[in-house]
Structures are given as structure tokens and as C-alpha cells.
From TrEMBL:
A Pfam family the protein falls into: MarR_2
Name of the protein described by the UniProt record: Winged helix DNA-binding protein
Keywords on record: DNA-binding, Transcription, Transcription regulation
Biological source species: Youxingia wuxianensis
Single annotated GO MF: DNA binding
Domain (HTH marR-type) ranges: 6-143
Database matches in SMART domains: HTH_MARR
PROSITE patterns: HTH_MARR_1, HTH_MARR_2
Length: 153
């Protein structure tokens, strides 16, 4: 692919990411008593699906491309709501692990369900053929992104 085509592809990708960002930015309200921002949801989701069920705060911050301080500000309210638990290493007290609680796992499941409920009606505008094309494109895009630096873990 020529450099100009690479630039156009990158621009198209930025436009896709902006549309995705807009579609997923509304906060989730679970049972009326738990509100989870999209950034907090990303923390919970990463904890639920990360291969290490207990991960250090610094490793999670690196995984989510944020500073330890930013992560700590997100984790504190999640911990207060009983969604995550911080565990201090018994040998090195400065090393802090973070773990998703059962309640936190249920919140992730409910938030995903809420997203599906919100997005599904938007897909009704597509014909069956467009839905199949969209589905195939999403699967292909996911597979291609996971080849590069955008892979999850």
C-alpha cells in the first residue's frame, strides 16, 4: 500500500474510533445504585478478561495506557462500591494487586448487556445483507488490530 493510502487508511481508522467513542461514552447505570463511567468500565472489563486474575496496579495501568495516578483515581470509587479489591503483597507492601470482586464481575456482565440493549436498536436500520457485512467487518477489524500493538494482552 502506498504512503498516501496508508495515511487515508489511518484517517479512516481515526474516524471509526471517534464514532465508536461516541457510541460507548454514556455512563452505565446498573440497578440505579451503581453508575460506571466508560473509563471505569474499561478498568473492570480489563480485570474480568485479563489472563491474570490478580494483576498489579502498575501492570494494569500499563495495560490501559494510563498513569498509576490516573488508575488509582478510577479504582478508589470502584473499591468503595465493592467492585474491586486491592491486595497488598505480604512481602513487598508497596506492591499492590487489584482483583475484580464477584459483584464487579456481575457489573461488567450487566454493563455489556446494557450496551447491547442500547446498540441493538441502532442496527435495525441495516438490511440483513448490511448486517452480515458489518459483522464480518467488525470481526476482520478485530483480528487485524490484534496483530499489532492493539492486541489486548
Amino acid at each position: 500500500m502506498a504512503k498516501t493510502e496508508d495515511r487515508q487508511l489511518a484517517k479512516d481508522f481515526v474516524n471509526l474510533m471517534r464514532a465508536f467513542y461516541i457510541a460507548t461514552q454514556r455512563p452505565f447505570e446498573i440497578r440505579g445504585d451503581i453508575k460506571v463511567s466508560s473509563r471505569s468500565f474499561n478498568v473492570l472489563y480489563a480485570l474480568k478478561y485479563h489472563p491474570n486474575k490478580e494483576i498489579t496496579m502498575s501492570a494494569l495501568a500499563e495495560t490501559l495506557y494510563m498513569s498509576g495516578q490516573q488508575l488509582s483515581k478510577l479504582v478508589s470509587p470502584l473499591e468503595e462500591k465493592g467492585l474491586v479489591e486491592r491486595i497488598h503483597d505480604t512481602i513487598n507492601r508497596r506492591q499492590v494487586f487489584i482483583k475484580l470482586t464477584r459483584k464487579g464481575s456481575r457489573v461488567v456482565d450487566m454493563a455489556v448487556s446494557d450496551m447491547v440493549k442500547r446498540i441493538s436498536p441502532e442496527l435495525r436500520i441495516f438490511t440483513p445483507a448490511e448486517k452480515e457485512q458489518f459483522s464480518s467487518s467488525v470481526r476482520t477489524l478485530t483480528r487485524l488490530l490484534e496483530k499489532g500493538e492493539y492486541q489486548q494482552w
